[in-house]
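Posting this for the archive.
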Amino acid sequence: MIPFDTLFKDGKLNKFMEEKSKNLWEGTLFEKYPLISNKNKGALGEKIVGKYMTLLNCSVRERKNSGQDFLIDGYKTEVKISLAHETVHNQFALNHISIKKDWERLIFLGVNYDLSKSKMVFFKKQDFIDHMDNTPSPLFKHQQGGEKIKNDDYILMGNFDNFFDLDFVYDISEWKNKEELRGLEFWLK
């Protein structure tokens, strides 16, 4: 048995946890975000994005399968959210991007401590695949075991300025301007 009482007795471990557990988002709309599970963080991101896309006069419907979060204007859409790390501007994590999942567009919501500088962007799946296949040093890296196990799970962490500058990453205001011609299946839905 591990003697936790003895290990914590001098108070140094308690002090360490207290110093590291400050909620940097206290007093903001996202004050409770650090306290919820990762799954619920994702669910909150989906709720925020769903409501916002409705404000942009987009059709937001339930997903067809677990490979996406929504159908937005008929596009199978995956949603990701990240709050800035340590409240440093544009320091985010975008993870669990899987090419094999059934999505066409991915919306990323990056929440900066100064909420007015937050960003919501999107990119198309084929553009992401092209970036991964044709860029000598793509921004995204394999996650959880990586290339060795032929993992189809990608991550981007750290400064997102280069990500936001990619030519295939669009501000969410461009959502309708980047529509593709859709087949008969879309119009019959």
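Residues 89 and 152 are 29 Å apart (CA to CA). DSSP finds six helices and nine strands in the chain.
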